[in-house]
Amino acid sequence: MSEILKATRPSGRSRRPKTAEPGRVCAAEGCDTVLSKYNRSEFCNVHKPVRYPRLRGVLPSEG
Ligand SMILES: [Zn+2]
Asked: What spacing in Å lies between the alpha carbon of 54 and ligand 1's midpoint?
């Protein structure tokens, strides 16, 4: 009978899961810490970039 019309999906856009791929390791050199799939960072908790909390006009002195 009539042809079944398939809904066309925009190509090139794949759905990304909320969680990152499992089995990743820390991006830091020499660190083999396996990152949790919930950890969307490239680094483990030890090597992840440190973020200073917002201070009121007080900046840490740079060496
Ligand atoms: Zn690490």
From this structure: 25
pLDDT tens, position by position, 6-54: 777 666 666 655 666 668 899 999 999 999 888 888 999 899 887 777 7
The alpha carbon of 53 and the centre of ligand 1 are apart by a number of angstroms equal to 22
- pTM, rounded to two decimals: 0.46
Structure tokens at 7: 């809904």
Range of the domain at 33: 19-50
User: In this structure, is residue 46 part of a structural domain?
Assistant: yes
CA diameter of the chain: 77
Please tell me the total count of domains within the chain.
1
